[in-house]
Task: inverse folding
């Protein structure tokens, strides 16, 4: 267990919060523009990376 | 969707629906505030670095002291404190200035917590009547002061008027009222619960001695949260520190402010306010756009035959009262779901926040909706009207 994993928990939660904001801005049709799509891709990738770090630190 | 525990469901209406609730939109959190809630939710989270003089507004890490200074500057006032809701701001000022039997001038559209704050201090509210447009004017306020003076032989101790009221979202003549207050040498509290945090507000320009704001109404902050700000002339009175000494222990707590009951708004609520502050400073610059959106919506809304807007027009605020007695209520009278037919139709279109079942007079607020969402909303109202045979005026 390391500080790194804890940091990544917050990174992931904050990234998901930004994703939550995109839902708020595009409801109820969720028609995303190019910029929003790009942001979603970045968020998803960032969360994946955080989870990888957490998994590596805690389980492997 | 799973619950948090047992019967506490996840609240996802801001993600799933367009929420037109009259008092919720301005308090909707920024992403930064949501992150603050995640990181600072623990009880005494703001107290990790509390050092001498051991008072909330003096804490430097996180920069709570700096926030207080910047908040006062942002409002054009000399001092500011955060409090658990606007009501605690009214209470702090009224409790400092008003004694038993004193009169306090309030609006005929005053929020009930203004009444309670006056009652708590033993004072008596004296309401300024509205004009034909449901506005509180400077002239009417001056007349009320004269009435009180004649009736009681004393001037009121405080004038407390809402900048925008909760009922119509109308703007009241707080600039003119501040001048009247100066002429009579009566302190003036401007209730900006519906304006601080959504539009530019400068207490000095208004001429107010006190400003009160609401975090959860208009400052993208969780409840309860609020602001009370003062000019330097009154700060020593409202933010006076304790003089009390324990008779046995001789303990004293000199730095603590009596009206604040020491530390006020701690933990996640305060940090969320602070986290929203940069976005607030930016968003108030775009208030004109918010006003354009509500006026566009009302123009479209009024194309539905029988619809009326009860608030002042053109709109100066996104909180608006409408009357659909001659349109949607006509349908409700014979519909098996009565007024709930309208709520059902809105919900089917992913719109919530109207007063469920109300089809006569009701309120809505469009603050923070995007233009796409505004156009969607306008179309939804017209689609519902068309579905039930209500004429749309071209």
Result:
């Amino acid at each position: 267990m390391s500080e790194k994993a804890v940091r990544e928990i917050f990174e992931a939660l904050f990234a998901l919060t930004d994703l939550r904001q995109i839902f708020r801005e595009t409801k109820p049709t969720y028609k995303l523009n190019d910029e929003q799509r790009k942001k979603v891709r970045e968020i998803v990738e960032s969360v994946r990376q955080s989870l990888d770090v957490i998994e590596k630190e805690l389980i492997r | 969707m799973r619950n948090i525990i047992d019967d506490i469901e996840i609240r996802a209406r801001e993600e799933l629906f367009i929420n037109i609730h009259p008092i919720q939109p301005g308090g909707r959190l920024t992403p930064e505030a949501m992150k603050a809630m995640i990181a600072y939710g623990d009880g005494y989270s703001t107290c990790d670095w509390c050092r001498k003089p051991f008072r909330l507004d003096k804490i430097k890490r996180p920069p709570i002291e700096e926030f207080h200074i910047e908040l006062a500057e942002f409002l054009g006032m000399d001092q500011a404190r955060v409090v658990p809701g606007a009501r605690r701001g009214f209470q702090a000022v009224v409790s400092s200035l008003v004694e038993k039997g004193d009169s306090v001038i309030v609006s005929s559209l005053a929020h009930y917590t203004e009444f309670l704050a006056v009652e708590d201090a033993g004072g008596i509210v004296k309401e300024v009547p509205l004009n034909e447009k449901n506005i509180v004017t400077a002239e009417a306020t001056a007349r009320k002061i004269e009435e009180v003076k004649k009736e009681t032989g004393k001037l009121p101790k405080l004038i407390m008027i809402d900048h925008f009221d909760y009922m119509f979202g109308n703007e009241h003549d707080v600039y003119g009222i501040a001048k009247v207050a100066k002429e009579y040498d009566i302190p003036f509290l401007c209730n900006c619960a519906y304006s601080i945090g959504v539009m530019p507000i400068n207490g000095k320009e208004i001429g107010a001695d006190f400003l009160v704001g609401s975090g959860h109404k208009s400052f993208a902050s969780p409840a309860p949260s609020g602001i009370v700000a003062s000019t330097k002339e009154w700060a020593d009175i409202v933010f006076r520190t304790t003089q009390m000494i324990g008779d046995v222990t001789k303990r004293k707590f000199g730095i603590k402010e009596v009206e604040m009951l020491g530390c006020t708004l701690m933990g996640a609520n305060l940090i969320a306010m602070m986290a929203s502050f940069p976005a607030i400073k930016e968003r108030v610059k775009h208030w004109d756009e918010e006003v354009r959106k509500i006026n566009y919506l009302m123009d479209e809304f009024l194309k539905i035959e029988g619809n009326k807007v009860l608030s002042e027009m053109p709109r100066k605020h996104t909180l608006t009262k409408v009357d659909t007695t001659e349109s949607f209520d006509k349908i409700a009278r014979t519909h098996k779901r009565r007024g709930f037919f309208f709520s059902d139709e809105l919900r089917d279109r992913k719109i919530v926040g109207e007063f469920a079942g109300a089809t006569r007079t009701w309120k809505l607020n469009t603050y923070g909706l995007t233009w796409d969402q505004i156009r969607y909303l306008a179309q939804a109202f017209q689609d519902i009207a068309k579905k039930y045979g209500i004429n749309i005026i071209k």
User: Anything to note?
Assistant: The helical segments of chain A are 3-26, 34-58. The mean pLDDT of chain A is 96. Chain A has two helices and no strands.
